[in-house]
Amino acid sequence: MNKVEIRDRFFSRYKELIRTEMIPYQWKVLNDEINITIERERNDDSIPNEKSHVIENFRIAAGRKKGHHYGWVFQDSDLYKWLEAVAYTLREQMDEELKSLADHVVDLISEAQEDDGYLNTYFTIEEPDEKYNRLWQSHELYCAGHFFEAAAAYYEATGNQKVLDTACKLADHIDFVFGQEEGKNRGYDGHEEVEIGLMRLYRLTQNDRYLNLARYFLLIRGTDQAVMGSKHLPLTYYQAHLPVLLQENAEGHAVRLVYLCTAMADAAAETGDEKLLDACRRLWKSIVNRRMYITGGIGSTVSGEAFTLDYDLPNDTMYCETCASVGLVFFAYRMLLSEENGEYGDVMERALYNTVLGGVALDGKHFFYVNPLEVVPGKSRKDPGKSHVKCVRPQWLGCACCPPNLARLVASVEQYVFVQKKNRLLVNLFVECKGSFEIEDGILDIELKTGYPWTGSLEIKVNYSGTACVCLGIRVPSWSDTTGLEINGKSTDSDAEHGFVYINQVFKEDTIRLELDMEPKRWYANPLVENDLGKFAVSRGPLVYCAEEVDNGKNLHLMSVEKQEPLEYEFKEALLGGVGVLTASGWKTEADREDLRLYRQGNAAEKKVRTKIRWIPYYSWANRGENEMRVWIREENQR
Hints:
Glycoside hydrolase family 127 protein, 6hp_glycosidase-like_sf
């Protein structure tokens, strides 16, 4: 069995945070056992935010309690994602008390399942006669997909047979109900996810029906064959405006789109379906080349939590949902399973280190739904169009999809470090760890040592018990202008091929050293991105940086930096859990307080004063109270 053990200082802190803080905290929230403020993610009175009620919904559906369902129709998925995060935590470090708690959750889920395999607390409790009648909005298959993922993870971690049996019973039920055969329901869920879960279940059980069902849900989407009933939003919102093989642009609800792409890429990798893979490539290019923020965030508008059009990337009204970046990581990884392109790893890294980690506070108990690139507290409070742009992370959210989603991804980050393909092993993320892989006639042991993301030095020790030639591919990030590569102390060619450097040999206690360029860099958006014209963003390594009011004072829009001004780096151990800080000498415009006219001719009343501008990593912002923040800063020509 292949295995990877994380020993990384940066991610170990997050994994320990998940184990000791996030999982217990989220359990209390799901049980309504903690006195917290649940915020609506935007000004919308229809969003339920009195309580979570997730566990209580299952108790009622199981017949243990009496009452009504509370919350969204997809509320069940909060528990499934929590269970998946628990599974990864137990896989890494067995905790009998936590396992016992999770086993009881599995029992509860099993009791809530109906005799025919159907499982959804809302429709079981409230509308049993409406099952599968409102697929555009019901999220029944979406919840099923999340349960399949959780069940597979929990079975693999603990060997709990009941969770796998319950999942297969549900999958068999869905397979009985849906399909193109005569008499079956020819619909699909409005929110993609069941396809991902079915692929996960297929790989675990090798039951071809689950693979075929996943492909059915993918390929019937957007076709005239599908029977869906009434809808309440445009077809683009559901990625149903065209068959998936014909879709060219990233459209609609951002999370749904990347979940769709994840499943398509997964099925393509499993079956070798080139048409599916081509469709994935087109949608990938649409996202990455024209519709993605520099932080790895996606979704340009609060309306429909959706993509809009090419190069429309507003910084202060965007959506950039945490779940969307989680889904982008999933999509990128699945694409790497089919083709070795370092861009997939670059984008995965960008989304993971910036928007995903930015979705949780350093205490593990506050969460962002939306990840803005520019905030002014007064505007978030008083502008209805910016009510979704929070300045500090809420304790919980009325729509709580993001907190457990983030937890399950970061808890399983070791799964994304390597990609194995027969006798090839790709090093995709630079996370300190040890791994063992079955390759050809032996076991390849690999150890990564690094201080990433603060240093660009990577040492890789490889030992192979077999006799075959193994190909080791190491991703060279596109942001690294220069790269040094040594094998057993000797410098060698570091030219990358599609974003990877390759070493082909029979490995026997070999040491490889990679040195990446960690100089701070300025980035400029395409001039068609009107919001960023005349501005720049800064990064160092995989981390995008931002400026906060607590370091730079109010009115961050008045700051500017000359084009040639150098960026200086310093690591601050005592700041925000230990972060690298960037500084530069810049200017801040000061208005004449005695001249209060709104408009005037010329800039005679303005003056600029020298100031030191400080940036912190984007993921660490909003941990020091409510204040302004922005990623893009005005740039001036040399005076």
